[in-house]
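A favour, since you know our C-alpha cells better than I do. Go ahead and set the record down below.
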Amino acid sequence: MHRESSLASASGPLPWLASLDAFAGPTDARPLRDMARAFVSAVQADGPGSERTLRRFQWLAAVTGCDVVVGKLFEPHLDALSIIDELEGAASSTPLLPGLPADPIWAVWAAEGPGQLNALEDAEGAWHLRGIKSWCSGAARVDAALVGARDASGNSRLFAVGMKSAGVAITGEGWSAVGMAQTDSVDVRFDSAPAVPVGGPGRYIDRIGFWHGAAGIAACWHGAAVAIAQPLRQRAVSGRSPADPFVLAALGAVDARLTASASALREAAHAIDQHRSGGAAFGQREALRVRAIVEAAAETVIHCSGRALGAGPLCRDAAHARRVADLTVFLRQSHADRDLAALGARVAQEGDAPWML
C-alpha cells in the first residue's frame, strides 16, 4: 500500500497504520475492529483540550490519505460515538444494544435515499424498522448502525440497530460504483427489525455536533487530496533538467489550494472547540464554507495532477488510480451547487463580515 511520510501529520507515531495492509474482506471484521479501536484511542489520547478537534481532523486526514475506504468507514464510526455521547449523555456508558462485541464498529446511515424506511412503535413501546435504507456504507463490515427513519408522524428520527438482529438483510443491490467499491454501500432491508431510539424527533440534525461532524468529512477529503498530490510533487523534485514548467505550474496551483484547505480546516477546528466551550456557534455557514474550500482543493488536485502527469500514474500505479477513483466518489457526499446555494443564502442573510481582514 502506497504511503507518504507527509501523511503522518497527526502528532505522534502512526505504527498501527501498518495494520491497513491486513485490511480483510467483509467476512473478517476483526482486523478492522482492531484498527478502529486503535484509531479511537489515538484520536482521544489527549482528552478534551484546546486542540481536540484539530487532532481529530489530523487523524481523519492521515487515515484517509493511506486508504480512502478505511477513512470513509472510520469517520462515521467516530461520528457515531460522538452522536451517542451527545444525545444519550450518561446513558451512553450503558450499551445501547445487547449482543454487540466489545468495541463495536458503528456506521451512520442518516441520509435519505431512494428507499423508504419507517419506524413503528408497538403497544409495549418497542420500536421496529421496516423498509429499505440506501447508501449503507460498510454494511457487511460494521456491527451496528445509527439509522435515520421516519416515525408515524413523519418526523425524522435516529435509531440504533444491530446488524445481526432479526429482520436485517444486507442486499447486494444499489451499489455499482468503481470508486469506493470496497465500501459496499448497498441497500439494507429492514423487516420489523428491533431498534432503539437515539434522541428525540429531529435531534440528530438540531444538535450542535451536526455541523461539527460535517466539517470532519472535509478533513477526510483533504487527507486523500494530499496523498493524490504526492506523485506530482515527486515529479517536480525528481532532479530532471530542465524542470517541466507544466509540472511546476500544476504544483503551484495544487500548493495554493491545499494550503488554503489546510488553513480552513485548522480555523474550523479551533472554532469548533470554541463553540463547545461556550463561544461563537460553528453552524451551517461555517461548515459549508470549509467543505466548499476543501472540495475545490481536492478537485484541483485531481485535475492538475492528471493534466501534468498524463495517464501514467492512473494506468500504472494501482494505489494512485484507486485513490483518485475513491475520492471522486467520496466528494459527491457534498451536494455541490445545492450546498453553495445554501451557503449563499446565509451570506445574503447574515452579511459579509468573514470576508474582511
